Structures are given as C-alpha cells and as structure tokens.
Amino acid sequence: MSVVPNKYPQRVQFYEDHVTTWNNNSSAIGTNISKVQNLTTLMQQARTRLNEQQVALAAAKAATLAFNLAVESMSVEGASIIKQIRAQAETNGDSVYTLAQIPAPATPSPTAPPGTPTALKVTLDGNGALLLNWKCKNPKGTSGTIYQIYRKLGVSGEFTYLGGTGEKKFTDDAVPAGVTQVTYQIQAVRSTAVGLWATFNVYFGNNAGQTTSAAVVENAPRIAA
C-alpha cells in the first residue's frame, strides 16, 4: 500500500500534514532541515496552484451551466419557429422549406409486416386439450398483432378457423379422440398488414405406458393468399 496518496489534492494535504514534524525531527528521521524546507516551498506552490485550479473549476462549471441554459432557451424558440414553418408548408407546399433553407420532412418508410410464427410447442393437458405455444419476431414499435389459428384434421381434411389470440399461445380443446395427425396454420395479422402463414404438423402417439404424446414438425412458411 502506497504511503503517499495517488490523487493530487490528497497528496498536497499529506505533505502539509507532515512537513512540520519532519522539520522538527529532520536529523532523527534521517533527512535534513534544508531538504524539508525545500519541500515546504514546493508544497506551498502546489497548494497555491490547487486553490487556483479549484477556483477555475468552479468558474468553468458555472460557465457550462450558463451555456447550457442559453442553448436550451435558444432551442425552444428555434423549435417554435420551425413548427410555424412546417405549418406554413402544409398550406403552401414544400417551397416554404426551400425558402427557409431547412429540409422537408422525409416520407416515413412503411412498417414491415408482422413476423412468421416459429418454434411451435404443444402440450397435452389432462383433459385432452392441446396447448399451443410459439415464437414470433415482429417489427419494433408495432402493437396490436393478432394470431389467427386454423386447423386441419388428418391428411386430406379442410382447414377450419379455430379463433384468434393476441398472445403467442392458444388452447385447442376440440381435438377429436383417435386422431393421429392435425395440421395447424398460424398467421400474424395487424390492421394494416399480414405476415406469412406458418404450418405445423402435429402427430399423436402412445408411448410404452400408453400415455398419449404429441410431436411437432414445422413446414416452410408460405405466402398468404
């Protein structure tokens, strides 16, 4: 552990706390009065510069605060004028922006459609209902996505609409007994756009203990008709 502090202000204080004792006991501690007096002179110079630095630092902080306040006041007034320019441009066209030498607002990019459901997981509950859970990565900043769920029984059946949900999960409590395969189609929908259909084949079977289980095979997504 260092005897002398690393930080300069504390280092100045350290020597201020020791020079008198060192001066009074210079011979006994192995130094001499001349050396201690030279240290005292340097220490006093360091204290003077430290005091000047602290004053300058306080002045710099005050100047920075005054500058920030001035910029904020300027920005509020400037934003008010730009708002007036935009209001004028809505009436008289983009030539107002040219005259004001500021860019016209960019045309906002259309929001991407919802994502495609993936990674379906199914769980059979004790009543025979099938609990569906999936993932879906939607564009940032979007909300109100609804998932439409369709189901087909067997290989040759027709898809029927089961319902919609605002969550990435759904309970199918109407799977007929004895069915060995069902196919689900799940599509993410917003009021202005739809995502790709995701198709999942679910196969039912019995294990050695005759307990019914379900396994999922995911097909490639297809574009909605």
User: What is the name of the CATH superfamily of the largest domain?
Assistant: Immunoglobulins
CATH topology of the largest domain: Immunoglobulin-like
The total of beta strands comes to: 8
| General form | elongated
CATH C-level label of the largest domain: Mainly Beta
Count of DSSP-assigned helices? 3
- CATH architecture tag of the largest domain: Sandwich
- By oligomeric state, this entry counts as single chain
What class, by secondary structure content? alpha+beta
> Please, what is the average pLDDT?
89
| Structural Rg | 38 Å
- How far apart lie the N and C ends? 75 Å
Q: Unreliable runs, pLDDT <50, ≥5 residues?
A: none
Question: Care to give the gist of this entry?
Answer:
The protein has 225 residues and is an alpha+beta fold. The chain is 37% helix and 25% strand.
Secondary structure layout plus pairing:
Blueprint: H1 8-24, H2 33-92, H3 95-100, E1 118-124, E2 130-135, E3 146-153, E4 160-165, E5 169-172, E6 181-189, E7 198-206, E8 212-218
Antiparallel strand pairs: 1-2, 2-5, 3-4, 3-6, 6-7, 7-8
Helix pairs in contact: 1-2
